[in-house]
Amino acid sequence: MIPPRQIRLDTLTTTKRELALDTLLADDSTFYGDLFPHAVQWRGELYLEDGLHRPLRAALQQRNVIHVRVLDLDTLVPAEQTGPTTAAIPAQRPLPDLQQ
């Protein structure tokens, strides 16, 4: 449901420490999954959630942009909540004990 868009490789922050070399070198690495890597935008930063082998492969091919599906949390959850917080809700009186 999220259309891919072009993203510069130097704007992506990786979230995985390791890369499976067999995934990078496999010709059919996207055969069973999504064709595009997944990223999450949060507080203005793009975090690569899945598909590290695709941007790496693009970089090895001297490309500086890649198509990525981006879930933009900045538009879903505003950075600063403008509405009332739970602290502004008055406390309710305790319920009467009805077991007497």
CATH architecture descriptor? Alpha-Beta Complex
CATH-assigned homologous superfamily = Conserved hypothetical protein from pyrococcus furiosus pfu- 392566-001, ParB domain
Distance between the termini: 57 Å
Average pLDDT: 77
Estimate nothing, just give the exact number of structural domains. 1
Structural class: alpha/beta
Spatial strand order of the main sheet: 1-5-3-4-2
The biggest sheet amounts to:
5 strands, mixed
The radius of gyration over CA amounts to 22 Å
Task: Flag low-confidence runs.
Answer: none
Q: What is the helix fraction of residues, given as a range?
A: 10-25%
Helix and strand sequence: EEHEEHEH
Description:
This protein is an alpha/beta fold. It has one domain (4-77): Conserved hypothetical protein from pyrococcus furiosus pfu- 392566-001, ParB domain (Alpha-Beta Complex), CATH 3.90.1530. The chain has helices spanning 21-25, 53-60, 73-76, and strands at residues 4-8, 12-14, 38-42, 45-50, 65-72. Strands 1-5-3-4-2 form a five-stranded mixed β-sheet. A hairpin with a 2-residue loop joins β3 and β4 (45-50). The relative contact order is 0.23. The mean pLDDT is 77.
Summed up:
The chain has 100 residues and is an alpha/beta fold. 17% of the residues lie in helices and 27% in strands.
Any descriptors?
alpha/beta, elongated, 100 residues, five-stranded mixed sheet, single chain, Conserved hypothetical protein from pyrococcus furiosus pfu- 392566-001, ParB domain
